[in-house]
Amino acid sequence: MTSMTSPSFRQLASFTVRSEPGNERLALAQVAEAVAGEGLSPGRLDRLKTAVAEAAMNAIEHGNRNQPEVPVDVEVTAADGDIVVTISDQGGALEEAGPSAEPDLAAKLAGEQPPRGWGLFLIRHMVDAMDVTTEGTRHTVRLVMRAAGRDGAGGPDRGAAEAEEGGPREDHV
Amino acid sequence: MKTTCEADVRMLPGGAVIVLSGEIDGHAADTLTAAYERAVASGDPATVVLDFADVRYINSTGIALIVSVLARARSQRRAVVASGLSDHYREIFDITRLSDFIELFPSLDGAVSRLTEAAG
Predict the structure, then answer these.
(1) A51: closest CA among A135, A151, A129, A103?
(2) Contacts B60 to A, Cβ<8 Å
(3) Gap between the Cα atoms of B51 and A30, Å rounded
């Protein structure tokens, strides 16, 4: 894990995107530009881009409820071999109906689950670790990718994700 | 930020091919649904090929659209195969288990060869 007190801490980018559908692609493009040269393999860069896009889409749609004037804040940092991307919205924890079931394709094909619901699942499988925090209305997803990790390696640090206050907010993407 | 998805439908012996391009996200719903309906409207194809060689981006909503197409095809006793996926999206098809239900081919030529062999 990284720390802002680490002597190797570097901020690579800090920006906002408007909460409009499709703007997750602006976020992923800017993150990809920010981490260029940080040593991520092409495969791991693709994984990070997918995770960033899904987290940003969730922030836009379910956090900020597509209100363009409410920004999604994105920060990209590097320290001790980790690349960390934080994505924050103003939607709070939004615990609605309890945790939804892990997406199960067979159940979806049988009509027992809706076709959607892959967003958080994809994020968890794309990055080396993720955690979620909520302070008041500010809801932040933190994605960690180790620059030297192997392609195909990784997967979630579920313990870290579940240990955080509030746990991950339900997404419906 | 507007995104685009286009779909070209081709009928072949033994199946139909939907050549997709652009982005497979929420904006692709109407395009993908209309393409599937065109593909099955004539010839009652046993197999529908989804070609992703020119697809630049697939998000979770796009995955859900593909799940919907697969569910619809299975209810009509049609097979769905896919071609042209990048390594990254092949991995996502594996993680989501779509590749358990959709046979993957590296290229459209390979998928079409399988169709024509089956029809021959």
Answers:
(1) A129
(2) 54, 57, 116, 118-119, 121-122, 173
(3) 28
pLDDT of residue B43: 81
Q: What is the pLDDT of residue A94?
A: 65
Contacts of A25 in chain B (CB under 8 A): 1, 3, 23, 57
Q: Is A97 exposed, middle or buried (0-12, 13-18, 19+ CB in 10 A)?
A: exposed
Over residues A21-26, mean pLDDT: 93
Distances in whole angstroms, Cα of residue A18 to Cα of each of A66, A71, A76, B4:
9, 5, 17, 20
Count CA atoms closer than 13 A to B102's CA, side-chain side: 33
- Nearest residue on chain A to B74, alpha-carbon basis: A109
ipTM of the complex as predicted: 0.91
* The two three-digit tokens of residue A148, written as one number: 């030297």
- B109 — phi, psi (to 5°)? -55, -45
- 């006793």: which residue's tokens? B77
Per-residue buried b or exposed e for B53-63, using 16+ beta carbons within 10 Å of the residue's own CB: eebebbbbbbb
Using DSSP bridges, classify how beta strands A129-135 and A138-146 pair: parallel, antiparallel or unpaired. Answer: antiparallel
Picking from B32, B60, B88, B100 by the largest number of A CB atoms within 10 A of its own CB, the best residue to mutate is B60
Question: What is the band of B115 on the pLDDT scale with cuts at 50, 70, 90?
Answer: confident
Q: How far apart, in whole angstroms, are the C-alpha atoms of residue B59 and residue B26?
A: 8
The H-or-E segment that residue B109 falls in is helix B108-119
Band of residue A2 on the pLDDT scale cut at 50, 70, 90: very low
